[in-house]
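User: Run a structure prediction on this.
Assistant: Running it now.
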Amino acid sequence: MRCSKCNTVHKISLTEEKVNPVKTIISKGKESIRTTLYLTSDYLNKELSIGDRLELDESLIISAIENKNRKRVKRADIKDIGVLWCKVKDSSINITINLGKYTKSFRVKTNPEDVFKIGDVYKIDNLNFIVHAIRAGGSTKRYGQFSAENIERIYGRITPIKATKILDVTEP
């Protein structure tokens, strides 16, 4: 390659970025799409685990890994992965509120780093409710606090206690 400033010829070697194709099933809400992810050198020689986040066009959370022997594993090197199952992580949470004789469900927009704690009181559509359980990591917890990115659903009961935080509904 010739330098445009000094006119000297320099040898350079171009290396093509390595890309590893991985068969992937991506779930977005009720819809699943089969595709192939082409993971670049950022991910090569790395081990992926269930729960890891892949920042591609969308933020994906790994929900299952199948190795090339068609066995489900909790972690694997990229070169050993047969199929990767991922969920698109949006920043909304499902909330179910028990109103006594019936329940009402909401979907609210949150920031992934927002923290929800069992025992906290929130307000949605003029309903004050206390959080009595949170589904996260595949099981329902009755105590503790969790970041929004790990929450699958929040369960609440209507309460007369004044809410400390107001949540905005995104979908009915």
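The CA atoms of residues 47 and 77 lie 4 Å apart.
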